[in-house]
């Protein structure tokens, strides 16, 4: 049995950690034992992982959220030399503070005889892995928009790269420091099993949420600006004029980026949608909440690297409208297995929602074709491809 260490620095349970869980759960049958380093509380995510997967809670003292907040504060400083000086000082302080994290990663690698580091988003671990002579797989869960000296230095040292969509692959392959022969494009895998709930169970949850028999339009994902919930509300106001019994269900929390929930609530009140939009909050039972929906809208306003919401909705047998920004267009073929719409265009998005709300035959046809497609993305086949990559770089 060989040992692989997954490293994820995301502060909440997002797509990259979901995919790590699905890989880790499958590769034990293929000769690899998995260890997962994450800052997310193990108690909150344990149910996503098999018992033989070891979860290690570890957070960098200086996180990407801290860096984003600092960048915003520095942008308000008009005197460029001072801004550069403060930025340099912070970078030095970050290196010093994160030394403990790097040492902890080194200890984990040595104590557990790790052979491969499967890295989602942590440059610090590349240096450690290389010093210890370990192989590195870098998993691109987002676009490569940074060609700085630091990025070039560390990313160029990885042994293989996995991109989660063709558009992500293209962004990385277009760089001059990543060899395309070391790259693979693998769509994210779906979960192995879906629990399909009974009508009674679905009705009971609808009763709890005070949804009743209304037409449910679901929006899933963290409450963060780029996910487009605010833009969805603008379109949904227009939907209400044509589909009076429609209700919007927003599933997700804002624990990582506080304040956006309040902004959404203010907009809901302004648009007079108080009785027509429901926040479910964070849930560990996404299957049930998908199955409450008649339609799911993926409304990211920035190019989505993949869009797990899209494949999760498909797998739960719910029709999908995907954003025109990013990889959604690779998963949803417009007017074949769903619709594509621009959430920045409220008229376009509302028209798509109204079309499927009023035409159940087309909605169900898209749903069935989407299910056929998504079942090709099974986790077992995906894990075999990942293990082939592991074996190739260890040979």
The count of helical stretches stands at 17
Mean pLDDT across every amino acid position: 93
Backbone structural class: alpha/beta
CATH level 3 topology of the largest domain: Rossmann fold
User: Using only CA atoms, what is the Rg?
Assistant: 22 Å
What is the CATH architecture annotation of the largest domain?
Answer: 3-Layer(aba) Sandwich
Give a quick rundown of the structure.
With 395 residues, this protein is an alpha/beta fold.
Name a few traits of the molecule:
395 residues; alpha/beta; Rossmann fold; 7-stranded parallel β-sheet; 6-stranded parallel β-sheet; 13 strands; globular
Explained architecture:
By secondary structure, the protein is an alpha/beta fold. The chain has two domains: 2-61 and 98-191 and 378-394, Glycogen Phosphorylase B (Rossmann fold), CATH 3.40.50; 199-374, Glycogen Phosphorylase B (Rossmann fold), CATH 3.40.50.2000. Helix content is 46%, strand content 16%. The chain has 17 helices and 13 strands. The chain has helices spanning 15-27, 42-45, 64-74, 80-97, 99-111, 124-131, 149-155, 166-173, 199-209, 229-242, 260-270, 286-291, 308-315, 328-331, 346-358, 360-374, 379-394; strands at 2-7, 32-38, 54-57, 116-119, 135-140, 160-163, 183-185, 215-220, 246-251, 277-281, 295-297, 319-323, 339-341. Strands 3-2-1-4-5-6-7 form a seven-stranded parallel beta sheet, sandwiched between helices. A six-stranded parallel beta sheet has the order 10-9-8-11-12-13, with helices on both faces. Helix 5 (99-111) packs across helix 6 and helix 10 (229-242) crosses helix 15 (346-358). The longest helix is centred in the first third of the chain and has 18 residues, at 80-97. The protein is globular and about 60 Å long. The mean pLDDT is 93.
């Amino acid at each position: 049995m060989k040992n692989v260490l997954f490293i994820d620095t995301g502060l909440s349970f997002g797509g990259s950690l979901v995919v790590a869980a699905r890989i880790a759960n499958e590769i034990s049958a293929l000769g690899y034992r998995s260890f997962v380093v994450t800052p997310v509380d193990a108690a909150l995510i344990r149910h996503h992982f098999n018992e033989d997967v070891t979860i290690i809670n570890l957070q960098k003292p200086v996180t990407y959220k801290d860096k984003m907040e600092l960048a915003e504060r520095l942008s308000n400083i008009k005197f460029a030399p001072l801004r550069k000086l403060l930025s340099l000082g912070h970078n030095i302080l970050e290196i010093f503070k994160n030394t403990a994290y790097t040492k902890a990663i080194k200890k984990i690698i040595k104590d557990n005889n790790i052979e491969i580091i499967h890295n989602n988003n942590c440059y610090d671990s590349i240096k450690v892995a290389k010093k210890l002579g370990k192989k590195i797989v870098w998993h691109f869960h987002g676009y490569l928009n940074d060609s700085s000296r630091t990025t070039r230095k560390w990313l160029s040292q990885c042994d293989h790269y996995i991109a989660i969509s063709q558009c992500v692959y293209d962004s990385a392959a277009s760089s001059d420091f990543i060899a395309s022969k070391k790259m693979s494009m693998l769509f994210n895998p779906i979960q192995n099993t879906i629990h399909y709930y009974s009508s009674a169970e679905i009705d009971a949850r609808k009763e709890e949420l005070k949804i009743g028999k209304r037409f449910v339009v679901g929006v899933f994902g963290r409450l963060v600006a780029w996910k487009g919930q605010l833009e969805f509300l603008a379109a949904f106001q227009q939907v209400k004029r044509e589909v009076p019994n429609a209700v919007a269900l927003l599933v997700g929390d804002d624990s990582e980026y506080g304040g956006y929930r309040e902004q959404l609530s203010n907009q809901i009140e302004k648009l007079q949608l108080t009785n027509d939009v429901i926040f479910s909050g964070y849930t560990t039972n996404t299957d049930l909440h998908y199955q409450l929906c008649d339609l799911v809208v993926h409304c990211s306003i920035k190019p989505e690297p993949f869009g797990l919401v899209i494949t999760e909705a498909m797998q739960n047998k719910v029709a999908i409208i995907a954003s025109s920004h990013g990889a959604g267009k690779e998963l949803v073929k417009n007017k074949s297995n769903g619709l594509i719409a621009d959430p920045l265009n409220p008229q376009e998005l509302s028209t798509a929602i109204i079309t499927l709300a009023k035409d159940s035959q087309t909605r169900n046809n898209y749903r069935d074709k989407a299910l056929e497609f998504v079942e090709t993305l099974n986790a077992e086949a995906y894990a075999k491809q990942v293990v082939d990559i592991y074996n190739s770089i260890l040979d």
